[in-house]
TrEMBL record:
Name of the protein: Class F sortase
Lineage summary: Bacteria, Bacillati, Actinomycetota, Actinomycetes, Kitasatosporales
InterPro entries in UniProt: Sortase (IPR005754), Sortase_dom-sf (IPR023365), Sortase_F (IPR042001)
Organism, scientific name: Streptomyces griseoluteus
Protein keywords: Hydrolase, Signal
Cleaved signal peptide residues: 1-25
Keyword Coiled coil assigned: no
Region of interest (Disordered), residue spans: 25-57
GO molecular function terms attached to this record: hydrolase activity
Keyword Transport listed: no
Length: 206
C-alpha cells in the first residue's frame, strides 16, 4: 500500500474497520481496532498486545506462488493511538501478522498486512495481491516448523469507507486467512480502495 493509513474510523451508526492509504513514504496496511463492535481479532481498550497464538504457532514466512510472493512475516501489535501497526517502510519489505488475531491454522480469521508500494523503494510485497483468484494456494510457515495451507475463496476490492469489518474480522468456525493491502484508483496522497483476499485452510503439515 502506499500508505495503508494507520487508523480506523468508526461512526456511531455503524462501526467499520477502515484500512486506508495515504502517501507517507510508503503505503500502510493498517487495520486499527474498532470501538463499540464485537470483532474477534481486536483486544479491548487497555488490554495487552500479547499474542494469543499457542507456543510455536507464530507465522514466520508467507508464500503465494501464483503472484511470486515469498516473504518473511513480522509480528504487528497496536500503535499508541490504538490502531494496528504496519510493517516499516524499508527496501527489504515484508508482510506483517497482527498478533492479536488467531495464528494461521487456528480457528478464526488470521490477519496479515502488506504494502503495495514502499515509497522510494518501489513495489511492496503485496503489489500483485489483486491478481489472486479463487483456488490459488497460500502457504504460511510457522515457527514450530509446520505449515498452514490455505486456498483463496474470494478477492475483493472495496472502497475505504465501505470496509467490510465483520466479514474480515468476525467469528468463523474454521481456520481462515485475510490478506490486506491498498488498491484501486490512486490519488495524490494514496489509494482509494483496499484489496482483501479471503482464504480458507485445508491442511496443516510438517
Amino acid at each position: 500500500m502506499t500508505h495503508l493509513s494507520r487508523r480506523v474510523f468508526v461512526t456511531a451508526a455503524a462501526a467499520s474497520l477502515l484500512v486506508s492509504c495515504a502517501e507517507h513514504g510508503g503505503d500502510g496496511a493498517s487495520a486499527a481496532r474498532p470501538r463499540g463492535t464485537h470483532v474477534t481479532p481486536h483486544p479491548s481498550a487497555g488490554s495487552s498486545n500479547a499474542s494469543a497464538a499457542p507456543s510455536g504457532s507464530v507465522p514466520v514466512r508467507l508464500r503465494i506462488p501464483g503472484i511470486g510472493v515469498d516473504t518473511p512475516v513480522m509480528r504487528l501489535g497496536l500503535a499508541q493511538d490504538g490502531s494496528v501497526q504496519v510493517p516499516p517502510i524499508t527496501a527489504r519489505d515484508q508482510a506483517g501478522w497482527y498478533r492479536s488475531s488467531p495464528a494461521p491454522g487456528q480457528t478464526g480469521p488470521s490477519v496479515i498486512l502488506g504494502h503495495v508500494t514502499v515509497g522510494p523503494y518501489g513495489d511492496g510485497v503485496f503489489r500483485r495481491l489483486d491478481r489472486l483468484r479463487r483456488g490459488d494456494e497460500i502457504t504460511v510457515r510457522l515457527e514450530n516448523g509446520t505449515s498452514a495451507e490455505f486456498t483463496v475463496t474470494s478477492v475483493r476490492t472495496v472502497a475505504k469507507a465501505e470496509f467490510p469489518t465483520e466479514a474480515v474480522y468476525g467469528d468463523v468456525d474454521r481456520p481462515e486467512l485475510r490478506l490486506i493491502t491498498c488498491g484501486g484508483p490512486r490519488t495524490g496522497d494514496g489509494y482509494l480502495d483496499n484489496v482483501i483476499v479471503f482464504a480458507a485452510s485445508h491442511t496443516t503439515r510438517r
